[in-house]
Amino acid sequence: MLGIAKPQMKNLIEVLSAGYRVLTERLWVLVIPVVLDLLFWLTPQVVVTPILEPLRADLDAAAIALTSTPEQQQELVQSMLATDIRQILPFNYVPLYIVPLADAATAPKISLTSPLGALAVIVLLNGVLLVLSALFLAVLGREIHPTRYPERGRVASVLHISRAMAGYVLTLLLLALVVGVPFALGAAVAAQTLPGLVPLLVVVAGIMWFWVIIYTGFTIEAIIIHEVGVLRGIIYSLRLVQRHFWSAFGLLAISALIITGFGVLWSWLAQSTFGILATLLASAYVGAGLAAARLVFVAERSAPNLQTQTP
After folding, report:
1. Averaged over 294-301, what is the pLDDT?
2. Interatomic CA distance for residues 81 and 75, integer angstroms
3. Which of 60, 63, 174, 287 lies at a CB distance of 3.0 to 4.6 Å from 73, suitable for a disulfide?
4. For residue 103, how far is the Cα from the chain centroid?
5. Where is 204: in which H helix or E strand?
């Protein structure tokens, strides 16, 4: 008796190739990451050193708990004091390349002295990038599934996706807060009694967070492809990773290797104005292709066998 042949799914190389084919049909979308990269490159840093300086003792204590040598402690504290808050972007999903500064000490800076002002900058920047992320991914998603948006216009789709993406990020932040605060308090107690235990606790926390990111790592793509809310998007991701663990893990690992490997190339290339411009174009293309590949992966593997009745 002849069985019904199941459609063969793409392997990871085919998924990556399909992602870049999708991108070639919507090359104009690269305008979003390239323009953002140019703005980050050409505008001054925004730092909060005057706000953090009074907390120097607390920063020193945290650095002592997280590092093993005085040199590492000083380097960590200095990096925290010099943090460019434009790079605090938890709501961004546009592939960006932040051009490394040749001399961070002499680079133009805007120093904020008000915590509320700093918070306003972070919220405004993340709000803009959230909408641009939704637009960027929705354009790629529409190319993969052009009939997924019949009931909403383009603007309504982007706003819906923006809300769902924000809900996912806020869910992760809430989880980190609920679990992280008691964990941090325990680490603080351990630092006073068993200092050698702190690095182990940091490793354990990192491993736990790693698996959270792995299993919910395709939530955004599920939101884009299926135009669902955050809860259903998380469920799609959990089920997809559960049923296709090695291919999902492999795609995430390959993407990380590609980003890391090209990151070395970008650092070498971005040594002149021409090199920086070439790097911004190339990095946008590589990052956008990987984002499209993730959408292709989810579109193929999360439907129809992962449908759920969750509202």
Report:
1. 92
2. 10
3. 63
4. 26
5. helix 198-215
* Residue 107, pLDDT above cutoff 90: no
DSSP character for 27?
Answer: G
Amino acid sitting at position 69: T
pLDDT of 223: 92
**Burial label, 294 (beta-carbon count in 10 A; 0-12, 13-18, 19+):** buried
State pTM to two decimals.
Answer: 0.84
Angle between helices 198-215 and 154-193 (to 10 degrees): 160
SS3 for 20-57 is HHHHHHCHHHHHHHHHHHHHHHHCCEEECHHHHHHHHH
Regarding predicted confidence, which is higher, 139 or 198? Answer: 139
CB 236 within 8 A of CB 218: yes
Q: What is the pLDDT of residue 75?
A: 80
Contact 18, 64 (CB under 8 A): no
The residues near 249 (Cβ < 8 Å, ≥ 6 apart) are 214, 241
Counts for the chain of helices (H) and strands (E), in that order: 12, 2
